[in-house]
Amino acid sequence: MQIIKVNTSTEYEVHIGKGLLCRAGEKIRALFPNSKVMLVSDDIVFSLYGEKTLASLTASGLECSHFVFKNGEERKRLSTVEDLLESLADGHFTRSDIIVALGGGVVGDMAGFAASVFCRGIKYVQIPTTLLAAVDSSVGGKTAVDLSRGKNLCGAFWQPSLVLCDTDTLATLKDLDVQNGLSEMLKYGVICNKELFEKVKNYKENDMAALIARCVEIKRDIVSGDEFDRGNRMLLNLGHTIGHAVEAASNFAVTHGHGVAIGLAIVARAAEKMGMAKAGMANEICHALSALSLPTSTSFDTDTLAALTLSDKKSSGDSISLIVPLDIGNTVIHKVKRTEVKNFIEVGR
Ligand code: GLY
User: Residue 187 to residues 14, 64, 157, 198: CA-CA distances in angstroms?
Assistant: First the structure.
């Protein structure tokens, strides 16, 4: 097992390894010996891992309740959070009690957001069960729910107190879920680590725990320097700004990882064609994406993508920050005038 320490406003550890669900009780009890636990999960994850996790929590002497909602992004809404908050209140939870989020990004983002507002803030633990949640959303304290106008528009920065990534849970992921995680992992390599890029491109099942740990270390380093997303943390959005536009244009039929892959390919091609990036870089990135069965283009037209890109919440004033690779392992924040976004996308498609 590997332990990564995160130094943010709340200091916490990320534990990565096999068999951690069975040790969840022992590890959580060590931090919160007298707390009640609300285990939050969706119906699919709960049917796979809920009983095992509850058994571990109760065996260690923790008093547990659980809140299970229907799987799906459409449930990541204030109405579900309200139901969870009412359950916490009905169970007489207080500020000294905790939430444990068991699942992928939807579960973690929503349970974390509920933790940030219940009694003006209680502690929570992340137990990610998807690759995407393991390498991205469970670490760094971005919590949120969706509004009708867009994803993650209502949220808070609220760091977890512990992250337990049991790599055994990855065995039940569908191919598409693995691809979604690999897309984010390749992103870390493009941002700042060419060696990781190569390793993700050629990954073997046995390397997965070490690769997850490397991605978490990179995220830890970036988030520790910019917890509230005012500077370098924006680098983590590589592929996301245009990727979100592709997801939204498809009414979310295109998954997050696939959107990020397409967004990454577009910014890489545009950066190279505009003379900002090293020659051959875009081809290398697209080749790696294809090797991982990830898409590198979209049929949505440039006007649609530009309009959706400009409605991104990262847009401010007359410019938008696009994250642009100059070479594999070297990525920068590049401000683009709103009027130039359409051309940037057109050049990169
Ligand atoms: N997922 C990007 C971030 O945590 O900043």
Answer: 20, 37, 22, 11
